[in-house]
Amino acid sequence: MGKVVFSSWAGKTVDNRGLGVKQHAYAEDLGLPSGYDHTKVAAFMGWDGFVVWDEKVNVVDMAHAYIKEVQKVCCGECMVGYIGITVLADTLARILDGKGREKDISLLQWLASGIKENAGCTFGQTAPIPIIDSIKYYRDEYLKLIKNKKAVPKSNYKVMVTAPCMEACPAHLDIPGYIQLIRNQRYRESLSLIRNGVCLPGVIGRVCTAPCEEACRRTQYDGRVCIRLLKRYVADWEMNSGLTPSSAKPRKSKEKVAIIGAGPAGLACSYNLALKGYQVTIFEELSVAGGMAAVGIPQYRLPRKILERDIELIEKAGVEIRLNTKIGRDLEMEGLWKDGYKAIFIAIGAHKGRKMGAEGEDNDYEGFVDGMKFLRDVNLGRVIEPKNRVLVVGGGDVAVDCARSCLRLGFRDVNIVYRRSRVEMPARKAEIEEAEKEGVKISYLVTPTKILARDGKVIGAECVKMALGEPDSSGRRRPIPIKGSEFVMKAAMIIPAIGQQPDLSFLPDRNQIKLAKQMTIETDTTTCQTSGEGIFAGGDCVTGPAVLIDALASGNRAAQSIDQYIRKGKVTQGEDSKLEIAVKGINLSEQREQEIVPREMPQITSQLPLKKRFGNFREVENGFNAEAALEEAKRCLRCYRVMVWLPAK
């Protein structure tokens, strides 16, 4: 943190006012932003106090700017918070207008302390803390303004409102906001708020990896709030009620935008651009839209009707989806410019399976099937003959999905072989546990080195046992073959699922669009711009295989950049991106006092019984009913974090 004029954060105070530079005490590194967009910060105020770097800062003005933003987030359910914060804002405004009274200081102190002690949520309990600190440590500044009886010019502050869960969500959804609406049974409004950041609410309510739940502060007390299932509840409620969401009337525009790929990133980008009024066309190679959500995720996790409904609503927003249209085969990418498209967004995903490096894997043996092709065939309803024994190679979600799909298709003996241990296995823990419950066997620290075949058909694999060495570039311990440990595993089918990469063969000029070492498209991470003029990219073709919410978030960012590019001819980093960078180092879960929270364990959902999961692809996980959704929504602590900071002049 370095030298400051004053710091009050996390219950620790450093006061250097009136001291010479050599006498200055150093504030600890509190992880607060001392800079914003390459500009130094003069002062910062947030939920746990404030820091002043420039002695000329008017702390009373900053307190007023802060409490005005707090007022916008206040839900109004408890009168202590709603009325108290309103009076705080009005009183501070009166002082800054030169109309303050000395007794206003006592009023501010009494109100702020009362709100802190009696507010009905975490937000209300923490929001007044910097006001209390400002009065305690800058009382003379308040008195000076009151005695001068002169209006104070207001400074321009940068503002950000977030929460630990919001910051963890790649799409930065207003999670406390939509949960509060569920709590008040305002389901349509809740879903509308969700759609502001996620155009596939029914999908993401089922298959999101939910990083927001990992960040939930409720875990400090009993258990995380089931945010994903609450999102699913309102999406299902709308569908089951036969309601159609009301869409905003977009501004009309003649400009056309081409999207290559109808996966989550492409759908998100197209939806946002359509709402901005652009004529958007998606060119999709497959016979169905949805990308990995359609052909990579089995229906027992994501029923097709859910995806189809979300896509239908995107089409109703004005997006045209041309299926069975492959760029590079049916249309050339260069031809899109001639057809009048002003920008192109590449969102082709990563559907091309990676090689195992095993001898014989390129011999086109019957029974050797790439994991992505296998799942695509399953999801498109193609006939797959069950085998007595199958080996699925890999440790990610695709491998687990392949194995669980095999059981539903009638395969009798399903085995996953993974070259590392259970600890390093990247598949989600819950998915691994469900696979084991269903009968999938997992062999750890094993890798195939040679595919065995007879008469052109797979009969097994020669494998070797592995030991774990030092961590590699992925951060996981590197698997090392153990000499002399070779053995054979019999199988009638082998399904490699060790990762995917994008098929970029359609790109007309590799020199025009730079590629990363991993053979993915290189972009600016904040704007999604490629090195090609007017060409943007996002999703798995940029990041490599990632999770669905990441792809949706990249599509959202790309839409903003494309809109800016078409309107202004260039793309600059948006204000939201600058703010995100500024707050990255802040520990949003930290606060000086722990609130009193009644112990309330998460609501539990039921699952399809094991005996009913075979021979079909019925959805395994059940969602919340209305009663459970309301009870779960009440568990949210509303951990909003309001922050204001003043850039130095």
Record the SSE blueprint.
Blueprint: E1 2-3, E2 6-9, E3 12-15, E4 26-27, E5 35-36, E6 39-46, E7 49-52, H1 59-73, H2 79-96, H3 103-118, H4 122-126, H5 129-137, H6 139-148, E8 158-162, H7 164-168, H8 175-183, H9 187-195, H10 201-207, H11 211-215, H12 227-240, E9 256-260, H13 264-275, E10 279-283, H14 292-295, H15 304-316, E11 320-322, H16 333-338, E12 341-346, E13 352-353, H17 371-379, E14 389-393, H18 397-409, E15 413-418, H19 429-438, E16 441-444, E17 446-454, E18 457-471, E19 477-481, E20 487-490, E21 493-496, E22 500-501, E23 535-537, H20 540-543, H21 548-568, H22 575-583, H23 626-633, E24 641-647
Parallel strand pairs: 9-10, 9-12, 10-11, 12-23, 14-15, 14-21, 15-16
Antiparallel strand pairs: 1-4, 2-3, 2-7, 5-6, 6-7, 6-24, 8-24, 13-22, 17-18, 18-19, 18-20
